[in-house]
Design a protein that fits this description.
With about 400 residues, the chain is an alpha+beta fold. The protein has four helices and 19 strands. The chain has helices spanning about 1-25, 90-125, 130-165, 295; strands spanning about 30-35, 35-55, 55-60, 65-70, 75-80, 85, 165-170, 175-180, 185, 195-200, 205-210, 225-230, 230-250, 255-265, 275-290, 340-345, 355-365, 370-375, 380-385. The relative contact order is 0.19. Residues about 310-340 and about 390-409 have low confidence and may be disordered.
Length: about 400
């Protein structure tokens, strides 16, 4: 008797499960829809860059010696011509004194040569000396004069080296870095050693950003730029494209171009060397008719690819230009260029099945895409299915037995 009751219970459970899944499998799919909206949107090209002063001057030393004095430090404000450091001048001062002595000796020799030439000239005029002696006297005079000029040049060079012991700021600005300390020896051989790095004006800065070659065609001078830095993650700064440089940089077969962004920094929040996440606004619409990008990827179940990809994410056609690119970088049709044509599905009020509609696309911001033709505000576009269609259970499957044919304990 107990065995009969168990068999009846299993038969009833199996029949109920079969009826439940058969009913659900025949149920029409339910669609997720989003109303076509209208509003402002912008298309951007994203890049990363580094903040730098507009004018950045490296102050070095043209002569060798050890640092005797420092008159500037990190973050010091300096003026053009202000003394920022001094090298020990003892060696160069001695050279100046030596050159002064050499010059005095040469001048004395020159005066003697002048007197000798004058006497020889008088003797030749009285026929008391041969003409050759006069010629030799004038040659010695010219040599003495040339020696004076050489000694004057040597003295001038020695004085210049002595003057270079005093390091002065070439511009008005702020000291960004200092590379030496008092007592440190600097050796100027082939390259001038760097002592200071001075920025001209930190209230005016620039971002040197690297834009990919696929996006550089949309970037132009005077376009608006928004960017963030890690130091202020919740604050958006603004700038303007100042220059798009033609010199390409290739790293591991990736070609980028330097886009210089001009930035105002009145509060001095931005510091040299900060990494900036840049968004160049290449197109903007104030009243754009737009749809979510998911509507462009949706395909009905009957159009789902044979590999079984989900209908809400698998697309049978090419993606809209830039729809999957982070931040909308380079996405959408270029301003003034050809517009993309795609197909979306619209669910009319009371309809059970969506209908395809051909649309012409404009720009996109990575989340939504502008519709130029084909839709109007308020149309319900399909973005996906609310729930996947349940597959019909196999004959050996039973929700109570777990498919093994044995009741669960």
């Amino acid at each position: 008797m107990k065995t009969i009751l168990v068999l009846l219970f299993l038969a009833a459970a199996g029949g109920g499960g079969w009826w439940f899944f058969s009913k659900n499998s025949d149920k029409a799919p339910e669609y997720q829809t989003v109303a076509v909206s209208e509003g402002a949107m912008s298309q951007v090209v994203t890049a990363t860059g580094t903040l730098n002063p507009v004018v950045n001057v490296t102050v070095g030393s043209q002569i060798s010696g050890y640092i005797q004095e420092l008159h500037a430090d990190f973050n010091s404000a300096v003026k053009a011509g202000q003394v920022v450091a001094r090298l020990d001048p003892a060696t160069y001062l001695a050279t100046v004194h030596q050159m002064e002595g050499d010059l005095a000796q040469a001048q004395a020799a020159f005066e003697l040569s002048k007197l000798t030439a004058k006497r020889k000239k008088e003797l030749v005029a009285q026929n008391a000396a041969p003409q050759a002696d006069l010629d030799s006297a004038f040659a010695a005079l010219n040599q003495a004069q040339a020696t004076v000029q050489i000694k004057e040049a040597n003295l001038e060079r020695a004085r210049v080296d002595l003057e270079r012991c005093t390091i002065r700021s070439p511009i008005d600005g702020t000291v960004i870095s200092r590379s030496v300390d008092v007592g440190q020896t600097v050796a100027a051989s082939l390259n001038a050693p760097v002592l200071f790095l001075i920025a001209n004006d930190l209230t005016k800065m620039q971002i040197d950003s690297n834009v990919a070659e696929a996006d550089i065609g949309a970037v132009e001078d005077k376009q608006e730029v928004e960017f963030t830095v890690d130091a202020f993650p919740y604050q958006t700064f603004r700038g303007t494209v100042a220059q798009v440089r033609n010199a390409a940089t290739t790293v591991q077969n990736v070609v980028t171009y330097n886009v210089v962004v001009s930035v105002d920094n009145p509060e001095l929040k931005l510091k040299p060397g900060m990494t900036a996440n840049v968004s160049v606004i290449v197109a903007r619409r104030d009243n754009a008719v737009k749809i979510p990008n998911a509507a462009l990827r949706f395909r009905p179940p009957e159009e789902t690819p044979a590999n079984g990809a989900p209908a809400s994410t698998a697309g049978s056609g090419p993606r809209p230009p830039g729809a999957e690119r982070p931040g909308g970088g380079g996405g959408g049709a270029r301003p003034g260029g050809p517009r993309g044509e795609r197909k979306v599905y619209v669910l009319a009020p009371g309809a059970a099945k969506p209908e395809p509609v051909a649309v012409k696309l404009g720009i996109n911001d990575g989340l939504t895409t502008e519709v130029l033709e084909g839709l109007k505000t308020g149309d319900a576009v399909v973005t996906g299915l609310k729930a996947p269609i349940a597959a019909r259970p196999a004959s050996s499957s039973n929700p109570l037995t777990g498919g093994s044919g044995m009741p669960r304990r």
